Amino acid sequence: TAADERLAGAQALWHEARVSVAAEVAQQTSSIRTCLAQQQVAERDAQSRGETSRLSQLSERAGFTAPATAALARASAAEAQARASQQRMQCDVEVKALVALTGWEEPTLRTRLAQPVAAAPDTLFTVDALPAQVLAQRPDVYNAEREVAAASADVASAQAQRYPRLTLSGSVGAAQVRTGGVTTDLNTWTIGPLALSVPIFDGGRRAAQTDAAQARYDEAASQYRAKVRQAVSEVEQALVRLQSTAERSASARTAAEGYRASFDATEARWRGGLASLVELEDARRTALAAENALIALQHERQTAWIALYRAAGGGWKL
How far is CA 127 from CA 176, 178, 191, 234, in A? Predict the structure, then answer.
């Protein structure tokens, strides 16, 4: 019946809530891990710039470095300290958001986050194929499908009301009566009354009800098609992002390693007096940007995997 179909669709929506919460927790956890990785980079950078500033001040006192150059080193160190402080603030905000989402105690959560974890894999789960049946398991798609079935049942019920109906009531019973030592068996039965409903002169009410039920069916079918198109679009977008991040990963890693090597070499030259502080800061800035870009790309790829998990209705376990 229509009520049964709607009940089945409503019961499926709990799965949507479960998948949504799982995806949100995974997304927030990935954001925190990314923030903490960027915080480590910022703190290393601040430490490095602080050491450069210290050496520049010593060189200035000895008369080997111009005051303007030492001032540049101090400004660079102060900028790095401010950036590291801002990054720590951002990570604290991310942690508190996860506390609110999960309901865990903050000290317990921070203890778990402080534990070392292996680097996130490029592939969170295996996807050999994505058949249409996978999309059909999405709670919103399934619920829309059940609504179509319920609307179809409503149309059939409304149409049945337009046809004549015959009702016949009656009963058959058995009883025993014992009087004066004599037992008498009695069978009782009744048939009727006979009722015949012929919906001819109802002012078009039943026809209107049928038309309304048909309109609700058309609406449900349209919404179902829209849900399916939305599901396909979300899956396609997640796959496109996965493909894009996969193509960029190797280049981003090579860039980060190359700029880091260039900075190390420039720093060694600067310590030996063969490179200026401007060259050192430029190499440092480039290496820092490349390292942060690699971390951001890894987070983008994890986000794409989570989006695919969610778009497919939670068909796999993270």
Answer: 74, 79, 66, 16
